[in-house]
Amino acid sequence: MASVQLLKKDSIIDDIERLHQRIAERAYACFQGRNGGDTDPFGDWLTAERELVWKPAIEVREQDGAFVVQAALPGVDAKNIEVDVTPQDVVIKAETEHVHTKDDGQVHRCEFASGEAFRSIELPKPIDTAKVKADFQNGMLRITAPFAAEAQARRVAVTTA
Questions:
Q1: Domain contains 152
Q2: How crowded is the C-beta side of 95, counted as CA atoms within 13 Å?
């Protein structure tokens, strides 16, 4: 089992904003490639999204006081996976590259892709980011995120000065 880079963060907004900006730039390049004709901004956005990022399949399960998140990342090396956590979110990022060499023979069809996987998962309960663990085996990423200790209500004694 390979360990995965895990980073605790206060917010995932910056990651989402950077990805949004990359997609917007690529969508604009698609628009310019048609010399501005036949405008289809939504189609350009979807094309840019498909070219730049893929969304891995996930399962989120609540088990034994923790969330267990599994994500399918076939063909990705553990060293190319990053998991960012906040008390409310888990973000999975991974890079993959598929290259053909001349020694592999003539390729007639290839459906392997290169690019970035990005998946943001909002959790239904807060987690303890200091105790989150992530491991990777056989193309499956498994993240175990224990629930945060719940704040307990209590009565405070009033003292006089």
A1: no
A2: 4
